[in-house]
């Protein structure tokens, strides 16, 4: 499976059925070349005006099933959030 195919899949939490979003990036362990986690952008704070929001960092081992259209994960979404890094201009 290519990264482009992975990005087209929606991530859904099996514990509560919550739609988390679509894969935006992966974390790769170097030098092994193994996927360590996937990143899914979380909701923005007030249309992005009050900061960049948070991302869901989902460990690869917590993925239950990768289907043709969705990825099922077994996580607590609130415990998998991390602040989103700002890119671009510092203001």
Task: Report on the architecture of this protein.
With 91 residues, the chain is mainly beta. 5% of the residues lie in helices and 42% in strands. The chain has one helix spanning 3-7; strands spanning 10-13, 19-22, 25-29, 34-41, 54-59, 63-66, 70-73, 81-83. The strands form two sheets. A four-stranded mixed beta sheet has the order 2-1-7-6, with no helix packed on it. The longest helix is centred in the first third of the chain and has 5 residues, at 3-7. The protein is globular. It starts with a helix and ends in an 8-residue tail after the last strand.
Overall, the morphology is globular
Overall pLDDT confidence: 84
Percent of sequence in beta strands: 35-45%
Q: In angstroms, what separates the terminal alpha carbons? A: 38 Å
Report the count of strand segments: 8
Extract low-pLDDT stretches: none
The secondary-structure element order is: HEEEEEEEE
Helix content: under 10%
> What does the oligomeric state look like here?
single chain
Count of alpha and pi helical runs: 1
Structural class: mainly beta
Largest sheet: 4 strands, mixed
Strand order of the largest sheet: 2-1-7-6
Q: Rg from C-alpha positions?
A: 14 Å
Defining key terms:
91 residues; mainly beta; 5% helix; globular
Characterize this entry briefly.
This protein is mainly β. It has one helix at residues 3-7, and strands spanning 10-13, 19-22, 25-29, 34-41, 54-59, 63-66, 70-73, 81-83. A four-stranded mixed beta sheet has the order 2-1-7-6, with no helix packed on it. A four-stranded antiparallel beta sheet has the order 3-4-5-8, with no helix packed on it.
